[in-house]
Amino acid sequence: MENKAVWLGYSFEILTPEADWNPIAGIYIFCGKNRENIWTPFYIGQASSFSERLSGHDRWEEAVNLGATHIHAKVVKNQTNRDTIETKLIQSLQPRLNTQLR
Q1: Which of 2, 10, 38, 67 could disulfide-link 32, Cβ–Cβ 3.0 to 4.6 Å?
Q2: Distance between CA atoms of residues 61 and 79, nearest Å
Q3: Could you give the C-alpha distances from 17 to 50, 100, 101, 102, in angstroms and in order?
Q4: Residue ranges of the chain whose pLDDT lies below 50
Q5: CATH number, domain at 63?
């Protein structure tokens, strides 16, 4: 299986929810493939620590119910850059579970 996905020109690693998450900052996307085998984003967020934020995430179960199977993650250490990238992704991709920043 591929291990990279590109969203709006940003490269993300494709990981399973059971991945060994590092305590590093970045952007994540809960997604799954649709009938056309194309990744569909259900929720986009950011974390100051992937390991803390993704452990028992409050939106994961909802995303799974919509078809999420994987988490796409991109390390982005700078808070301002995370804010900018997260906003661009949410506004452009309009994931169903994101109600803010739309």
Answers
A1: 67
A2: 27
A3: 11, 23, 25, 25
A4: none
A5: 3.40.1440.10
Read off the pLDDT of residues 22-49 as tens digits, 9 standing for 90 and up: 999 999 999 999 999 999 999 999 999 9
Residue 99 lies in a domain: no
> Which two structure tokens, joined as six digits, stand for 65?
């119910």
Task: Answer whether residue 101 is part of any domain.
Answer: no
Does residue 102 form part of some domain?
no
The total domain count for the chain is: 1
C-alpha torsion angle, residues 31, 7, 94, 68 (rounded to 10):
0
Task: Enter the tokens of residue 37.
Answer: 């085998």
8: CB partners within 8 A, 6+ apart = 88, 89, 92, 93
Q: In the prediction, which pLDDT does 1 show?
A: 54
- Residue 89 maps to a domain: yes
Residues 6+ apart with CB under 8 A from 2: 14
The predicted model scores a pTM of 0.95
* Cα angle, residue 12 at apex, residues 44 and 20 outer, rounded to 5°: 85
